[in-house]
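=== Structural record ===
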Amino acid sequence: MFVNVGQQSVKSHFPADLPRMVLMVPNVEMAEALHRKVAPSQAAYDLIHTHCSIISTIAVGITDRVNALFLKQCTLPQDAPERDPAHGGGSIPPRLLNRDLVQVGALLHDIGTYLILKDDGAEGRPLTFQGERYIQHGLEGYRLLIDEGVDESVAQFARNHTGVGLTRRQVEEEHLNLPPDDYVPVNLEQEVVMYADKFHSKRQPPIFVSEATAARRTAKYGPDNLKRWQDLVAKYGVPDLKPLADHYGMEIV
């Protein structure tokens, strides 16, 4: 069952018989339930939930790869390379990443996009977003999750995933439609989800985005953004998108 939240409060969307304490750090099932409750239509759910599921799969794959590199270093000779030239690349991280946190954070990172829809696409209408407010979807998602009692450690995945990280300086100098603040990942898990998010687009029809295309998109916002992207590619490698693209029947652009 879907409920059209519109301008209404989005509090208390989880079943009333679940203790609030359980909702502080949601698991996968709770994340799925929140999508179902907040989505105003099947069309909105299909687009946004599918995107979040795809990003979760990509982000978990990246996490597994760099975690494997971290564990492998314990048995490698001291002169072994710190980067993996095969299997998409990537560098040895300074610590093991929390796989469960990455998974649920990715599933909820775009939950705020339900709140900035212009038309929810019901009854066959085209689904559209409020263009001038789209940049606020991360902040809206963060507020929604906090209102739901979700822990800050998870809610920040929504807040801090736009672009390759928005700094207060960027927000102010570019007059972005956001309260002046830093909207950048504060840990490796958030950074992985932000990075993975660039490899799929919710445009209609949805597409997977190649590394080369993502680099061109990032470069439009200046050389500093491009350098940040290149650093992320070196750090986390390039995911293999073809199996996912085949599974979902989507094009890689």
The two ends are 34 Å apart (CA to CA). Confidence is low (pLDDT under 50) at residues 1-23.
